[in-house]
Fold this protein.
Amino acid sequence: MPASANLCAVVRHALLEAPLPAWSISLSVTLALLVGSACLEVWLKYLARKLNPEDAVFWPTWIATGTVAIGGSVIDGLVRNLNIPVLQVVLAFGSILFGFSVLPKILEKKGYDPATGRVINWWWIVLAHLWAVVILLSAVAVGVEIYDFS
Amino acid sequence: MTSRRRLRSRARTDNPDKPTQLGGRWATTGMVAGIVLGMTAGLASLIVSVGIGKASVLAAVVLPVAVIVPIVARLVVTFMAAQPEDRPHILSALHDLFSSRGPR
């Protein structure tokens, strides 16, 4: 057997056949969503128009992705009678609730210029990204648990 | 009317655009409480899902990525948005920023 075929078999086994722990799946999916959505969003905007500094803001995309992901997982789990972790779902929705209510008001007061809508303080935008990634991570972890990917 | 309400009412009458001291303090308290509660709820959901050890590993990997991505994106966006004749200046400024010599 040639070396390349042997390598392919090893990679296939590692990716598809070997059991992966749930937390590593959560990590991979979250990182793929974070980096992938950011790169594709900037690339699509670059193709359509001239870029501006506000195009480097991704917290709305990440919060929206996490919300839709957990909502879809919970609805699908209810319809198909899958095992839904109630406590995790309630806590994740609590974080989403604050993310949709408190976070935009904080950014309205501290992060953006109300007159122009431009970013005036990047530290608050960085905080918003941290919060968004916590929401996304908890949503992905709940989804992995509902679908029992491990 | 209680003294607090009278205070706020007088402050609004004097300068309607300026937020009152009381309102500002409550707003700050609410924002801090919202940040703490929101982040705690998300992290608690993660900890209940995967356990505190794995949740720490996940947070330690993902949180720095969440900080790095917008910073890198801002550098890329600034570079792409600049006029072609200005791009070498941006590159040299970045080089100075990250080199051991520091900015010139």
